[in-house]
Design a protein that fits this description.
This is F-box only protein. InterPro entries: F-box-like_dom_sf (IPR036047), F-box_dom (IPR001810). It comes from Castor canadensis (American beaver). Pathway: Protein modification; protein ubiquitination. The structure is a single chain. This protein is mostly helical. The relative contact order is 0.07. The N and C termini lie far apart (about 90 Å). The protein is elongated. The protein folds into two domains: about 30 residues; about 80 residues, no CATH class.
Length: about 160
Amino acid sequence: MKKNSKRNNNLRVSGIEMNSVNAEKEKHESQNNFVELLPLEVTLEIFSQLDIQSLCRASVTCRSWNYAIRNSDSLWKPHCLTVRTVCQREIDNDLESGYSWRVILLRNYQKSKVKHEWLSGRYSNICSPFSLPEKIMCPMDADTWGEILEAELER
């Protein structure tokens, strides 16, 4: 009976040691996480130096980074405005609808990519709707299709 009692004490002591090791590890990780240590303005200034791909990668690093990046319109707005061929009217409509800059970027990035490829002549060889690459096509407004048609007619 004493052996069982002794074994239970060792487990409990071992459990306490494990809890203190985990707490120490979490404390160490928290000390290395600048997002939790620095003022939000400084954190956002650091993240604002990243390109869009790096910003997306940073957002999946940990919860605190994801929260800071995901909820900061100031990080997404410059990227959204510099994406090529995004129509200002589409951005304005999305802003009026209450979308965040991150969501506006997500909504318009694929559209802008397709539009740019159309305007650069990548799809000039398409002669029927059956020839369209389905996976990369997305709905576009009449003005965008008008720009594409004008570019095709000029070619």
